[in-house]
């Protein structure tokens, strides 16, 4: 006999969890409620300029988000009969507006722990205090309930975090797909994307290393392709420092960042590959990189607003210049250092840069030119397709020497170029007229 459900009406608030598979918020909403709708809110702040004058969401990520939302809308309806509604404005207004026509008793959502996001959630909860608000840690491999008891405080050194977690914590297996609901609730709220987002078309650059469309469908395809068809995972450790093309690394970060791929599903697939095909240094290394992602998420949870602070987690009182002329040259790829410029032009024209490139250009800005690392991080935030608040600001701090790199390294762009681009192919690709350019 079917157990009576707890709630008559519920809302799943989608944000950076744009998927149907292994989505705890969606799974529990459908299990516990008779009627469920999905909601995506376009918060004005995400579409404004930041303090340095860059759009917080630049065209590349906007385009990727558009594709991700269209895919989510279709998959939600086809697989679960859940309609996805869009609202432009503040979340508190959205929920009040919905409450008037659809008196929901519960909201299921993905937990966030950075200031702007927490403020948005708080305002929404305050607007609808009668509802039960149930947050889930859907962007993590390990739940805080498992991790926090392992440490008195999350260690500042990655290796300590990694070793303890690997020994003592377990990744939760992905959830099955919930059952579709019987009826589709109909509200008078938009099911269409805002016209300005619809109008956002990005011409994919012919040299773009990342040219995949957004959305869960493509996330799953890419995972399948990289692991099971290309077997890229089996040689990842040798190729991961590459600079050109699609397959030197997994290219899963944009999907992980907006949640169209579950990191727990990716982990389960890595383990399945190891069991069914082969386990080697490379298959382990892909998991190792996911632990870096996890670690930055926990660092952000530990240090809260210090993630964005000039002095960083370490509260280092370095002097940073806000030299706009030099910063602009860095941003446009016109520093005069070919390896830096090639990477910066790739980012400018495609919204993508390799991990090797990111480390070098960040180190160059912060440690060679001593320019405020937050300006660089803000440009990355605007431009990157795979922008993830914890990974971006955490990595920038790490490279700038205010975070938790125990070695506080400095990258020499010339030796890095010789090592990772020995024939100059990557530099030629982006500097067109060759290494000597105006
Ligand atoms: C200054 C700087 C800024 C960065 N900003 C971001 C960002 O906004 N969003 C983002 O996802 N990554 C960021 N990274 C990390 C890393 O560069 C990208 O995750 C990686 O290049 C994405 O390519 P991939 O998916 O092919 O990665 P792969 O090499 O295939 O790695 C697999 C996954 O592991 C994770 N990962 C790998 N390296 C790191 C790392 N250093 N830190 C955290 N997670 C990692 C990513 O989720 C990635 O998708 C940044 C790195 C630096 C140095």
Write a concise keyword list for the protein shown above:
single chain, 438 residues, alpha/beta, Rossmann fold, Serine Threonine Protein Phosphatase 5, Tetratricopeptide repeat, DNA Cyclobutane Dipyrimidine Photolyase, subunit A, domain 3, five-stranded parallel β-sheet, 19 helices, globular, binds flavin-adenine dinucleotide
Describe this structure in words.
With 438 residues, the protein is α/β, with parallel strands linked by helices. The chain folds into 3 domains: 7-138, HUPs (Rossmann fold); 139-171 and 214-303, Serine Threonine Protein Phosphatase 5, Tetratricopeptide repeat (Alpha Horseshoe), CATH 1.25.40.80; 324-431, DNA Cyclobutane Dipyrimidine Photolyase, subunit A, domain 3 (Orthogonal Bundle). 47% of the residues lie in helices and 8% in strands. It contains 19 helices and 5 strands. Strands 3-2-1-4-5 form a 5-stranded parallel sheet. Helix 4 links the parallel strand 4 (106-110) and strand 5. The longest helix has 23 residues, at 281-303. Mean pLDDT is 96; it is low at 434-438. The site of flavin-adenine dinucleotide (FAD) has 29 residues, from helix 10, helix 12, helix 15 and helix 17.
